[in-house]
Design goal:
heterodimer, A: 115 residues, seven-stranded mixed β-sheet, four-stranded antiparallel β-sheet, B: 112 residues, mainly beta, six-stranded mixed β-sheet, five-stranded antiparallel β-sheet, globular
Chain lengths: 115, 112
């Protein structure tokens, strides 16, 4: 079974520029998550999709971050404009969601450096 | 507030000795996960604990869950160098609904 695919693996941009990340979840997984992991910290949930609908985006900085999941499969996360504090690894995860306790599987992540 | 705290933050281990990582959480949950992360890599699932008193073991690692104490432990038996990594616990809080709140991680370094 193929895992969660993310691209690019690395990205370096200047502050105020825009950037987009892509995620392809495990086939058949209805739930997709984007997490932000700052160096030395645990991942923090940014947004959760169930199929193509948003379940939770309470921690997404909506003035600069946006995300979409077209057709309930692939997802993109965009930052515009980027700030220095956005430097982090952005992890995508997916799960099949059969109730609480369903395991989530993580992609390799995209490491963003804002200079 | 939904909080997950791990301690210690850093653990320097000697090969062959036993150690424990603790994960405390702030409110009701009976779903707890342990993940391992190697430097520059993603999160690898280790254990899924789904009920009070759950205990799971894989090799030198054993995880347990006490929902009354809101505590999970990850016990390492006879540490070996290959276990060097950062370990995260994550909680699926009843109030939050099928999404994970992570602890800050415990960085483990096993020295010969």
């Amino acid at each position: 079974e193929a895992g969660v695919a993310q691209s690019p693996r690395y990205k370096i941009i200047e502050k105020r520029q825009s950037v987009a990340f892509w995620c392809n979840p495990i086939s058949g997984h209805a739930t997709l998550y984007w997490y932000q992991q700052i160096l030395g910290q645990g991942p923090k949930l940014l947004i959760q999709f169930q199929n193509n609908g948003v379940v939770d985006d309470s921690q997404l900085p909506k003035d600069r971050f946006s995300a979409e999941r077209l057709k309930g499969v692939d997802s993109t996360l965009k930052i515009q404009p980027a700030k220095l504090e956005d430097s982090a690894v952005y992890l995508c995860a997916s799960s099949s969601y059969r109730g609480r306790g369903t395991e989530a599987f993580f992609g390799q992540g995209t490491r963003l450096t804002v200079v | 507030e939904l909080k997950v705290e791990q301690n210690p933050l850093f653990l320097s281990m000697q090969e062959g000795k036993n150690y424990t990582i603790y994960c405390n959480y702030s409110t009701t949950s009976d779903r707890l996960y342990w993940y391992r992360q190697d430097p520059g890599k993603s999160l690898e699932s280790l254990f899924v604990l789904l009920s009070n008193g759950a205990v799971k073991q894989e090799g030198r690692l054993m995880a347990s869950l006490d929902t009354k104490a809101r505590l999970s432990t990850l016990h390492i038996t006879a540490a070996v160098h290959d276990l060097s990594a950062t370990y995260f616990c994550a909680v699926d809080f009843v109030a939050a609904g099928n999404k994970l709140t992570f602890g800050g991680g415990t960085r483990v370094l096993v020295k010969p």
